[in-house]
Amino acid sequence: MKPGVYTAIHKDGTIYYRSSITYKNKHISLGSFDSEDIASQVYEEASHLLRTSCPLEDAGLLAPTVPFEKIVMLVNFRDNGLYFGNPIYLRKNYFSYYLSENEELKFDIDDLFYYSSHKILRRKGHLYVNDYGMQVTLLSRYGIRSHSVCSRDYYFANGDVTDFRYSNIVIINRYYGVFQYTTRHQKTRYRVKIHINGNYTIGTYSSETKAAIAYNKAADLAKSYGIRKNFPENYIEALSAKDYADIYIKLKISPKYIAYLQISTQS
User: Fold this and answer.
1) Which residues are within 8 A (CB) of 18 and not within 5 positions of it... i.e. 6 or more apart?
2) Which of 139, 225, 234, 235 could form a disulfide with 212 if both were Cys (CB 3.0 to 4.6 A apart)?
3) Rounded distance, CA 112 to CA 95, Å?
4) Sign of the Cα pseudo-torsion (139, 68, 62, 46, in order)
5) CA–CA distance from 208 to each of 89, 174, 180 (Å)?
6) What letters, b where the CB count within 10 A reaches 16 and e where it falls short, cover 35-61?
7) Rounded Cα distance, 58 and 174, in Å
8) Which of 244, 226, 227 is nearest to 235 (CA)?
9) Alpha-carbon gap, residue 220 to 179, rounded angstroms
10) What is each CA distance from 35 to 1, 15, 17, 45, in whole angstroms?
11) Is the pLDDT assigned to residue 125 strictly greater than 90?
12) What string of DSSP letters covers 146-169?
């Protein structure tokens, strides 16, 4: 058997070939292959890659048979002395996570532990990880909800949608039904809308917190008038139950909205 190659057997009894390499006292699996020759070629390319100073950007040319995900892991181990089970490459003050050779995501070092143990997957254009049996989207880790729209509810400060560093993600609207805008006098205000057979404006408020509570109050009113709809609820963790109740009671709701509810009940 050629160096770095081992045989293994599928459940159906057929033979396949595993390739692995030892580097800095760490045994690293390079993958499973249908032929001994390919497994051996992967081993030779990986060995050569670890002996050179070839930058990550050119490593694919040096090791064309090695899966790119594995190339990232090997080069990072070679350059930075840390081996991760995911395609992560450490850079100065941040790290890159490669979805493919041409898709590089950037994260703060604070997230290194999380993404070194959680593989990023893609489904219908959405990026997510499996966490405790649940699919958690990358954006939800920043407080961005599934209904949020880029450029309306949040945006990437430098325009790079692959840059997930915290300083680059700016959240505009973090609550259901709440939309931030700037008046002509450059004051920030929050308009609240609720959807019931169309969008209805609940009011405009001076703070995001009040606006979020106003949405909850509008949803509660709709339910009290017999409208059967599963309205989402805004959770404001920073407020105590008493403070929340005080704001809730004092908040004014658009009379037009209340009139609409009354008419809906009568009809």
Assistant:
1) 5, 6, 7, 8, 29, 31, 32, 33, 39
2) 234
3) 7
4) positive
5) 38, 9, 8
6) ebeebbbbbbbbbebbeeebebeebee
7) 41
8) 244
9) 19
10) 11, 9, 6, 16
11) no
12) TT--BTTTEEETTS-TTB--GGGE
pLDDT at 158 over 90: yes
Task: Return the structure tokens found at 75.
Answer: 């080069």
Question: What pLDDT digit, counting tens, does each position of 100-114 carry?
Answer: 999 999 999 999 999
CB-based contacts of 90: which residues, under 8 Å, 6+ apart? Answer: 76, 79, 80, 82, 112
Report the predicted TM-score, pTM, of the whole model to 2 decimal places: 0.79
Pairing of strands 169-171, 103-108: unpaired
210: Cβ contacts below 8 Å, ≥ 6 apart: 190, 247, 251
Taking phi over 0 as left and psi of -120 to 50 as alpha, with beta for the rest, 177 belongs to: left
Please report where in the chains the tokens 């070679």 appear, as a residue: 78
Q: Which residues are CB-contacts of 79 (< 8 A; sequence separation ≥ 6)?
A: 56, 89, 90
Give the other-Cβ count within 10 Å of 232's Cβ. Answer: 14
